[in-house]
Amino acid sequence: MSHTHSHAPGQPSHSHGPAPPQQQQQTMVMRPPDPLMQAVIEESFRPVEIALGAPENAVALCGKHKLEKCTDCNEDHRSLNRLSRLLVANPNLRCPPPPQVVSQNLSQAINNTKDEGNTMFKGGHHVQAIQRYTMAASIAVQRPPWEAQQLMREELSMILSNRSAAFFEAGDFVSALVDAETVIQLKRPWSKGHFRKARALMKLDHYEEAREAIQLGLSYEPTNSEMLQMLADIESHIDVPETGLEKASSQPIPVA
After folding, report:
1. Least enclosed by CB within 10 Å: which of 126, 142, 183, 184?
2. What pTM does this model have?
């Protein structure tokens, strides 16, 4: 409990209780930076000449060519400028919120659009499903840069995995392979990306590469029955090329 009293005539009264919040903040001392981390930052620091561009001189450009990304100057300010444009467009946002703050409206739009694609896929409308998955991916990449990147990676990996399946069923095996490769880059330990890659490679007659892809997927999920069966089919085809593998890849694989 705090109390206030005077010690002697002419001396001001004072309190022995806790200091007010404002006074406490004034007495806080900032901790010195970690010397090791500071050394790493200083070692990698490279001053560059920049120019400022519209809007409101809030965009950084290379000083020589006035470009956001300049190969000659080895500068790329696009990520910085994206954040800057967002802050300029939202003047009431004084600083980026913490990464735990997620746009629920954006999440709902992504999920709704993906679910529409799933419905079209299950109905056999693969081209329309591809369009909805593409729209969902376009919405997902609009997340502001201060939100946790892992969330966007999870959303994109699921959407592109589904789009890979839709491309496969539409007969566009190259696009199915490209999406599967992207899924692996986004979420390497997820066996679904490796499965979709192997499946597309089989249709493109790249059976050795398909075997490597499915073996990598099995290293993350050794007991996955679908991948074990696919590996057996691939190996039987490699051992006896004339048998073909149409039967192994004829059934649609459900989307997530």
Report:
1. 142
2. 0.64
Tell me which residue of 182, 174, 178, 126 sits closest to 152, measured CA to CA.
Answer: 182
| Residue 74 in tokens | 């080895």
d(CA 227, CA 181): 17
Dihedral angle of Cα 55, 56, 58, 60, to the nearest 10 degrees: 70
Phi/psi at 6 (nearest 5 deg)? Answer: -105, 145
Which of 217, 152, 230, 151 minimizes the C-alpha distance to 181? 217
As given in the structure block, the two tokens for residue 86 are: 């967002």
d(CA 88, CA 93): 9
DSSP conformation class of 142:
T
pLDDT per residue over 130-139, tens digit each? 999 999 999 9
Q: Which amino acid is at 215?
A: Q
Who contacts 177 (Cβ-Cβ below 8 Å, separation ≥6)? 164, 197, 200, 201, 204
Residue 19: how many other CB atoms lie within 10 Å: 12
Phi, psi of 13 (to 5 degrees): -75, 155
CA–CA separation, 191 and 173 (whole Å): 19
Which token pair is 69? 């990304």
pLDDT, tens digit, for every residue of 19-32?
A: 554 444 445 566 77
Are the C-beta atoms of 83 and 217 separated by less than 8 Å? no
Cα Rg of the chain (Å, integer) = 28
Q: What single DSSP character describes residue 7?
A: S
- Spatial CA neighbour of 148 closest among 92, 106, 194, 182: 106
Token duo for residue 8? 């002697």
**Are the beta carbons of 135 and 162 closer than 8 angstroms?**
no
